[in-house]
Design goal:
Number of helices: 0
Shape: elongated
Strand order of the largest sheet: 1-3-4
Helix content: under 10%
Order of helices and strands: EEEEEE
Mean pLDDT: 96
Number of strands: 6
Radius of gyration: 12 Å
Largest sheet: 3 strands, mixed
Oligomer: single chain
Length: 71
């Protein structure tokens, strides 16, 4: 069991998109930490943890107040 960390870009523009896909089907035992790198995720100033097997997430940057939004 290990934690995988993905660090988001420190700067982003509206519409930037990042896709996260659990191709190995192991996020349940190898959690993914999405490090916000100073920008918000879903309006929160905290990192995001993905712990569900076979998860696919698309993050789209909206603005400074909302930051990265889950699509």
């Amino acid at each position: 069991t290990s934690i995988i960390t993905l660090t988001l870009p420190a700067s982003a523009t509206i519409g930037n998109t990042i896709r996260l896909i659990d191709a190995a089907g192991s996020f349940d035992i190898n959690n993914l930490t999405v490090a916000r790198n100073g920008l918000k995720i879903m309006g929160l100033a905290e990192d995001m943890t993905v712990a569900n097997k076979n998860t696919s997430i698309e993050l789209v940057y909206y603005n400074a107040a909302s930051g990265w939004r889950i699509k």
